[in-house]
Amino acid sequence: MPFSRLSLGPDLARAFRELGYARPFPVQEQTIPALFTGQDLVVQAPTGSGKTVAFLAPLLHVLAKGSSEIIPGNPPRVLILVPTRELAMQVRDRARELARHLPLPLKIRATFGGVSVNPQMMALRGGADLVIATPGRLLDLVRQNALNLAGLRHLVIDEADKLLELGFSDEMNEILRLLPLKRQTLLFSATMNTAVQEVVGAFLKAPLNIHVEGGPALAVSIDEKAYLVPQEAKGPFLRELLARETWPQVLVFVASGRRADNVVRKLGNNGIRALSLHGDKSQSARMDAMEQFRSVRLRVLVATDLVSRGIDISGLACVINYDLPRSPRDYVHRAGRTGRAGMSGIAISLVGPEEEAHLALIEKKVGRRFVKERVTPGCDQR
């Protein structure tokens, strides 16, 4: 089914052609027509399946059709709740990318913590059609009368399981009390558990459930390989991989912020420029690192699981697990940063002797056996 048959109008259909989207993914085929019915939706779809476009495209179409509607103060008609600042910026950028093709301008704003609230308040002074927000900063803006949710027509709760994992339950309950009763609510989550089901029960009314098993299948579009390497040899071997391979960009995952900074330092000492991204970095440093990586001015980004979900780096060639993730689910989220939108990619894991049992568990849970190669240390151990 082409995008032109999803009732998105000629402007967005043309936008998809110009942006190189050949056909919608399954989550888009199922979600977009369902959203137009006005019914609440619960969509369970894996990382990299195309769900951001699944809610942005139809909501932008609805906003464009109703752009002549005059509401005093121009309060947002669409609110998208996301768990992290990085995801807020990504969704904003994708929304603006699509909205550029619409005949009438839409005001799209992103609000998130970790930076001064004043510029975000100024940006909202003239109102907004669509707001992407993290829960804490959203409440800050409401308390300071910079944002009014009375005109809200559509609420999207994106990465619901991650929102709850990050401890936003209290904020979500407070936000619920601020929302108008008459609205359409869409909840997206990679997994469904008791906590997510409680949010569904509180926020949604008789929702339609959509369960998409996959977008671009991880096992097909991504080559997965494990190098069995002693812990003390991981650093030298990582440098060897980066030197011999021609990947234009590499995302390296580690277990902690301290480890990220240490890996970056050792890479730099050996002539490989890299930046780290983790929760202990300032917001400006995090934004700068992501911007350099997205614009391909930075080849190597070393990160914690802060960016393992929801972040779309177009054309990312390779993900390297310097440390194995804590769970098979986290492995899927990490590996899903490459091989997105049907493109190919490679996911490499550096596995110490003490991690081999955990690797076997990951293989069992994801239902795949990775290609393995044992590395004999023989390079400089600096």
Describe it for me?
- This protein has helices spanning 9-18, 26-36, 51-65, 85-99, 117-123, 135-143, 160-165, 169-178, 194-203, 218-221, 234-244, 257-269, 283-294, 328-335, 356-366; strands spanning 41-44, 78-81, 108-111, 130-133, 154-157, 184-189, 208-211, 222-228, 250-253, 274-277, 300-303, 318-321, 345-351, 371-374.
- By secondary structure, the protein is an alpha/beta fold.
- The strands form 2 sheets. Strands 3-4-2-5-6-1-7 form a 7-stranded parallel β-sheet, with helices on both faces. A 7-stranded parallel β-sheet has the order 10-11-9-12-13-8-14, sandwiched between helices.
- Helix 2 (26-36) packs parallel to helix 3.
- The protein is globular.
Compute the number of helices: 15
- Give the SSE order as H and E letters: HHEHEHEHEHEHHEHEHEHEHEHEEHEHE
Count of DSSP strands: 14
Mean model confidence by pLDDT: 87
Question: Could you give a short account of the major beta sheet?
Answer: 7 strands, parallel
Structural class: alpha/beta
Low-pLDDT parts are: 215-220
- Characterize the overall form: globular
- Spatially, the strands of the biggest sheet line up as 3-4-2-5-6-1-7
Gap from first CA to last CA: 55 Å
- Which value, in Å, is the CA radius of gyration? 21 Å
| Assembly state of the chains shown | single chain
- Beta-strand fraction estimate: 15-25%
Helix content: 25-40%
Topology:
Layout: H1 9-18, H2 26-36, E1 41-44, H3 51-65, E2 78-81, H4 85-99, E3 108-111, H5 117-123, E4 130-133, H6 135-143, E5 154-157, H7 160-165, H8 169-178, E6 184-189, H9 194-203, E7 208-211, H10 218-221, E8 222-228, H11 234-244, E9 250-253, H12 257-269, E10 274-277, H13 283-294, E11 300-303, E12 318-321, H14 328-335, E13 345-351, H15 356-366, E14 371-374
Parallel strand pairs: 1-6, 1-7, 2-4, 2-5, 3-4, 5-6, 8-13, 8-14, 9-11, 9-12, 10-11, 12-13
